[in-house]
């Protein structure tokens, strides 16, 4: 892709991979079928047209693949080189699918834990089908992700993405226990955010590099890129929770503060306004306290 000059329209990264995104969306729908009708409709819920989300992670991964797939040396016959690259791309698409299944599984469980009623502009699965099916559908997606991962026959990649699931659980637990442990620091926030959001993006970027046959050094650069992008993504997501609307977010705003979750905007405000500490300590079980804290943001 030629570099655009500053006065030209910015490139839409989603549009660059839109064809591949629809291939992945179709494949995902076929990967989550179940013989049990209730489970089938729960598992496919967030892969249906209109409930698919932004596709941020698959887009990042497909662009990472485009950047890292090197042409084969000239000595390799053209048709071999092209089939090799096609195979490499298919395996990388598989990483995008696995990542999206793990992501959706985490959203399903997250909405149960938070008792959320809206997600991606529609009713959350726990709201529509109940907590039990939402938990089971999340487990089902994780199992399908494991099977797809095993089919890649690359133990390093299996280990990377299996560890991500542990990281998601670790980040969520850190978030849940932050207040009780009095760990309301920026350092704690960034570690939690790495586990909760950035680990999936960084490790899947690394997996894409490994499948492209890149060196450990390049794979680590892909990891660092994904880590920084993931942290930035969550920081923006946390700001949007204060500034967005239900229409723009696809879910209710102010959900973090109402759940007593201390994110970066509050941590910055606490540094500037020490009086905010005593409001935070009282908890956000009543809306008066939420309103009092919001005065400082
Ligand atoms: C079962 C894998 C698993 C995990 C359980 C609940 C939990 C542990 C982890 C929660 C992780 C979580 C939901 C992190 C938030 C990540 C985040 C920023 C989600 C929103 O991402 P978007 O905006 O969503 O890309 P869409 O809907 O567009 O895909």
Strand content: under 5%
- Strand line-up in the sheet with most strands: 1-2
Q: Which series of helices and strands comes N to C?
A: HHHHHEEHHHHHHHHHH
What is the rounded distance between the termini?
41 Å
What ligands does this structure carry? geranylgeranyl diphosphate
* CATH fold label of the largest domain: Farnesyl Diphosphate Synthase
| Helical content class | over 70%
Quaternary structure: single chain
CATH class of the largest domain: Mainly Alpha
Count of spatially separate domains: 2
Total strands: the figure is 2
What would you say the CATH architecture of the largest domain is? Orthogonal Bundle
Overall residue-averaged pLDDT value: 90
Low-confidence parts: none
For the CA atoms, what is the radius of gyration? 21 Å
**CATH homologous superfamily designation of the largest domain:** Farnesyl Diphosphate Synthase
Could you say which overall geometry the principal axes of the C-alpha atoms support?
globular
Tally of helical segments: 15
């Amino acid at each position: 892709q030629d570099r655009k000059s500053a006065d030209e329209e910015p490139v839409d990264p989603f549009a660059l991979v839109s064809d591949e995104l629809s291939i992945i969306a179709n494949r995902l729908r076929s990967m989550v079928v179940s013989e049990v009708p209730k489970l089938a409709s729960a598992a496919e819920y967030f892969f249906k047209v209109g409930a698919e989300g932004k596709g941020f992670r698959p887009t990042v991964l497909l662009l990472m693949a485009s950047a890292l797939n090197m042409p084969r040396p000239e000595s390799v016959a053209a048709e071999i080189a092209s089939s090799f690259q096609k195979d490499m791309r298919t395996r990388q698409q598989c990483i995008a699918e696995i990542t999206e299944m793990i992501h959706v599984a985490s959203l399903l469980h997250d909405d149960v834990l938070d008792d959320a009623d809206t997600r991606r502009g529609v009713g959350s699965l726990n709201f529509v089908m109940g907590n039990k099916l939402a938990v089971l559908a999340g487990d089902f997606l994780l199992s399908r992700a494991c099977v797809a991962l095993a089919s890649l026959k690359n133990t390093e990649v299996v280990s990377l993405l299996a560890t991500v699931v542990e990281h998601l659980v670790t980040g969520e637990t850190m978030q849940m226990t932050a207040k009780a442990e009095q760990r309301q620091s920026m350092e704690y926030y960034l570690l939690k955010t790495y586990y909760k959001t950035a680990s999936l993006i960084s490790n899947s970027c690394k997996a894409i590099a490994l499948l492209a046959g890149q060196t450990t050094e390049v794979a680590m650069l892909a990891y660092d890129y994904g880590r920084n992008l993931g942290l930035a993504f969550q920081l923006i997501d946390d700001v949007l929770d204060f500034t967005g609307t239900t229409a723009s977010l696809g879910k209710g705003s102010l959900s973090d503060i109402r759940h007593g979750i201390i994110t970066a905007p509050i941590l910055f405000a606490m540094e500037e306004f020490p009086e905010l500490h005593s409001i935070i300590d009282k908890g956000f079980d009543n809306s008066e306290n939420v309103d009092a804290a919001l005065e400082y943001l």
